[in-house]
Write the structure tokens for this entry.
Amino acid sequence: MKTITPLTTLSERALQVEHAVNGAASRTREELVDQVSGARDAAQHGASGLQAGAAVVRDEVSGWWKDLHQSWATNVARIRKTEDHAKADHDAADAEARADRADADADAALALAYAALDEAEYAILDSSLARMDARDARDAV
């Protein structure tokens, strides 16, 4: 029986994103518009989940994580507002500049996700070590 962990779920989601992105070039404009809308809805749902998560984060979690959750939600809202305004422009140069900004936003989001995975690996392993130390200390008594 397969055990589902947050890392398994994250890995599966990363594969879904990879397939969606790799297939984007072969889609029609209408299909891509629908895909973009769905991805945006998912991203907004994830951002609101971060906000909700930040509201219930235990006191033991560093303030940095709380700040990151709040900052992420604020920045996503700012990016969305800028994108919505830019989509109203149909000038080719403006559209190209919007595409360049979207590329940069994607690169930044991927870099953040990669860094978050590194931090998650550290935190999970450090947690395991701390549990082992606690068990050893308890057993030594």
